[in-house]
Amino acid sequence: MAVKKSKDSCKCVSEIVNSYGASPDSLISMLQDIQSKYHYLPETALRQVAKSLKLPLVQVFGVATFFKAFSLKPRGKNHIHVCLGTACHVRNAPSVLGEMERQLGVKAGETTDDMQFTLESVNCVGTCAMGPIVMVNGKYYGQMNTGKVKKTLAEYKKSPRQRKNEKVKVANRA
Ligand code: FES
Q1: 35 C-alpha vs ligand 1 centroid, how far in Å?
Q2: 89 Cα nearest atom in ligand 1
């Protein structure tokens, strides 16, 4: 979802800034919250944060570009990392990435047109014994193979209504 300079987005950024008492010490936390909301850091939001905190814009951009976890480019709602580190590579991770690319219709580093998925490759996420590893929104999928790709993606293609029904089922079990 691209963020337009609207009253809503300004209000949302203001709420985030104010939730940290508009303290420059909480800049990273604010940027995390903004990214969590929009899936990236829109330039308008960074300008608004800088203005609200009375910080030079270059300082806010400096933090936003220093940490790899932040993105200045629009990203999909779901963020997929396919590990291509050595241990995963020798267990066929490139084929897993290729199948992801085929199923999503994008190359690594790209976002689907519907803004649902961003696909990226990474080098080792520290769980080599379980490789090949795919991470979706921080959740690890081990021993991945091309046959599991479709099912994994399907988990994230569900409609909000389907997800809501699942939550109700889980809640009823408790
Ligand atoms: S190489 Fe993939 S988790 Fe280490």
Answers
A1: 26
A2: 1
